């Protein structure tokens, strides 16, 4: 496993001889979105296709002193049009991955999950943060803090499997997955502990594969061997978790943002369960987060990520 604080550097090195992918940037009508596109070109990660109002994009770039050399613009007037065109380009293979620009997530996710022409697969879509914090013993994946608000058990199974699949693509041969709650004991009054126990049994029965699961685990005994020893928690995951599965969106969003804004973690984020990698940026995301997220998407493409046939189950969006 790659050591913390060198993880993204090692990913960049692994992509050094890989040709840039075609990246659809949907409605990049903000300075950070355009700056990220420019830096992605300079890093050799992708050839961005900027999907949005061409005149506005050009004026914004000129006003901010951003060069769009190496980018192509597809002129569409509105954010809804940009989302529809971008998803269509990904569906037909014109672009290999998508990045959200400055449109509302609701509009973007609606087009992604559209039954006809969208990018749905047999998996529920879910978001994974990749976080490399100075004080963390290893790179941590946190899921789901951006897409599924209050997932049921079936959705949580897909959320776990999606994160495991991403872990494999990032070099984790057998990731250790901690299914989090507030405590480490099953408590019928705390539903997240029941879900955690069921998910672990599903892994034992082969309904979740490619990782070692344990839960419920509180955050401290998931990442700290000393905390696990103090509480008498003995498992192959306790104190050594690679993937943190949170009970709901609020918990995941707070945990990831605490690690980035207070813990100074280098961060990336990716939506799994789609036919192509999808980068779901926040308006507050700085340029490095957008560039590192593109790097993760490029690694996924290199690993042959392409999703599964069109789904029959409902997606969140």
Give the key terms.
alpha/beta, 5-stranded parallel sheet, 39% helix, 11 helices, disordered C terminus, 6-stranded mixed sheet, 317 residues
Report what the structure shows.
With 317 residues, the chain is an alpha/beta fold. Helices cover 39% and strands 17% of the residues. The chain is built from eleven helices and eleven strands. The chain has helices at 7-14, 31-42, 54-64, 79-92, 105-112, 153-169, 191-204, 219-223, 225-230, 249-261, 287-302; strands spanning 21-26, 46-52, 72-75, 97-100, 126-132, 140-143, 176-180, 212-217, 243-245, 266-272, 278-279. The strands form two sheets. It has a six-stranded mixed sheet with strand order 8-7-9-6-5-10, sandwiched between helices. Strands 3-2-1-4-11 form a five-stranded parallel sheet, sandwiched between helices. α1 (7-14) crosses α11 and α4 packs parallel to α5. The protein is globular, with a radius of gyration of 19 Å. The two termini are 34 Å apart. The relative contact order is 0.18.
Helical residue percent band: 25-40%
- Percent range for β-strand residues: 15-25%
User: What is the number of helices?
Assistant: 11
Shape descriptor: globular
Structural classification = alpha/beta
Main sheet attributes: strand count, strand direction, barrel closure: 6 strands, mixed
**Contiguous uncertain segments of 5+ residues:** 307-317
Number of strands: 11
**Within the largest sheet, what's the order of strands?**
8-7-9-6-5-10
Give me the strand/helix succession: HEHEHEHEHEEHEHEHHEHEEH
Oligomer: single chain
Radius of gyration: 19 Å
Question: How far apart, in Å, are the first and last alpha carbons?
Answer: 34 Å
* Whole-number mean pLDDT: 91
